[in-house]
Amino acid sequence: MFSRNIIAFMFASSIASLGIAQDQLVYPLDVAVGPEDSIYIADRKLPGIWKVVDGKLEIFFKGSKTFRTPLNAIRCVVVDDDGTVYAGDSATREVYSFSEDRKPLPLTQGHIGIAADLLIDGDHLIVSDLETQRIWTFPKTGGKPEEVAVIAAVRGLAKNESGELICVTTLQDPVRKISQQGEIEKLITGRPFQMTHHCVIAGENIYIADNYANTIWKAELSPGAKPEAYVSGAPMQKPVGLCRYKEGFLVADPHARQIFVIDKEGKVSPLLSQTGSN
Questions:
Q1: What is the CA angle 169-233-26, rounded to 5?
Q2: For 5-18, what is the mean pLDDT?
């Protein structure tokens, strides 16, 4: 009887530990803010999307561990003003939309290889594709992507106040502006960053997540601008995703297994209480 109780206890403990893993971030790569400051998180190793409700995590959509199934390798997420969620998934070479039924609807028939970042542009989406080394656009309702620009290693997309597309690449001359005519202008030159990821434009400045440098950089959106560290170091570890949130920002950090809030004074604090975080 005693041994049976021990086995039962160990079994219950195992299930409990699995349960804990299911209500904590595993490897968050991106974060997005929707209507009424709702927060959505792309978690590469859930795999799927979390939604933050009343300060707590709930699963919005959980993909399968099986390769080539929707959101098995989710990399980015963005939310429209009407609450529609869009996510890029490299396992199926696709971008999906999610409406109220939370069912993934494929939008490009597998034309997007590795979606690194998504940007809503009116009735279209813009996506950076690491595989084809291009930036694409297509209708939010779905359709064949059209080429915007040929630029390799683009991991961050944003639009300035004039509606011009800004991209951030990990290559030389990392910040570039793309006109509506497709002309490319280099804004930040050289190699001032280590490993750039997502970016946000606020006013006349661009903010860039640098994974290797453990830094969020700030720079003016003008030719020859010199970036400066906006926030750096702990509690962040390896920032990747970045989005605007109220008067500050949210940062997705897969190594810290956390979403960090940066307030308007530049103070960094965790969004979630994660007892299992490193």
A1: 75
A2: 38
Q: What does the alpha-carbon distance between residue 54 and residue 69 come to, in Å, rounded to a whole number?
A: 30
Nearest to 191 by CA among 213, 171, 209: 171
Asked whether residue 9 is domain-assigned, the answer is no
Angle, CA 91 vertex, CA 136 and CA 144 arms, to 5°: 30
For residue range 159-197, what is the model confidence (pLDDT) as tens digits?
999 999 999 999 999 999 999 888 999 999 999 999 999
C-alpha separations of 207 from 50, 112, 165, 168, 231 in Å = 24, 26, 15, 10, 10
The reply to whether 210 and 276 lie within a common domain is yes
In this structure, how many other beta carbons lie within 10 angstroms of the beta carbon of residue 276?
Answer: 12
pTM: 0.91
Amino acid at 154: V
List, edge to edge, every strand of the sheet that includes 165-169. 154-159, 165-169, 175-178, 184-188
Residues 157, 169 contacting (CB under 8 angstroms): no
Closest CA to 91 of 77, 105, 74: 74
Out of 150, 174, 192, pick the residue that ends a domain.
150
